Amino acid sequence: MVYIESPSTNPAFNLALEQYVFDRMDRSQEYFMLWQNDNTVVIGKNQNAFAEVNQKVADAKHISVVRRLSGGGAVYHDLGNLNFTFILNAKDATDLDIRLFCQPIAELLRSLDVPAEVNGRNDISIEGKKFSGNSQYLKQGRIMHHGTLMFHSDLSVVADVLNVSADKFQSKAAKSVKARVTNIAPYLPEGFTLAQFKTLLLKYILKEENVQPYVFSAEELAEIEKIKKERYDKWEWNYGFSPSYSVEKSRRFEGCGKIEVHMNTEDGSITNLQFFGDFFGVKDSADLAKALIGTKLEHQALESRLADFDIAQYFHGLEKNDFLNLLLQSE
What are the transmembrane regions (predicted)? Predict the structure, then answer.
């Protein structure tokens, strides 16, 4: 497995770096990457940035907002947080398996007498409090799994800058962000540093001592900068344009996450449709939305149009009937 250590704490650069490794580097190799971002909210591909981020706090604290390629929810990064990424061939995988990549992290922490557990759809927690959020991106037989590891992050900023909806607190049996997140450092011996933890993590994952990171050429760095400039630096990608919709509805599904439906209709048929939420999927929900344009908003027509679609590919963990009921539910 090739080790990659980002030379930057710029979030747009680091997401471009991930994309470069995923899309451009030797597919016969497996990659493990460690990286850090300075004061950033990273939102999932399917999320509405305006709904997820307290922009007033982000502006005041100079916190950037960047959208990643994978689904899932918004996470806060600072230099007290360490991010990890696995990139490898998915073999026969046609769906997401987030727990597979979380287990080694939990095992390492348990070897240090930290009671870490993989739980929920995509969390690693200590005593019921989340310190790691994870997500995946699956494309053309290749998988990218990335996650956060809050070591000594500023939890007060996490609480201030993220707009977490009440239904998520209810599903987690917690009343606030602070009640459901934690750092790793308090569970380790006093004086245990992030640098020490990083060294242990590298050794545990790669099974080697003194691993040397991959060195990027000037040409490769230029390509990464190009990806950064063309996607991750752009307002259109990070915030995006969202037209006004006459119908807006949302629901949280166990094992899937929250799905928001924003829809316009005319003469009983769908004319515009967009999905937001912290859900995962191996296919783009925008493609499903496009396929439903022109369909009458009634059960038989929708069921017929969706006959050849596997809804779980777009909304991991969701049944087709639940999706139909969501589209048809009245507010």
Answer: none
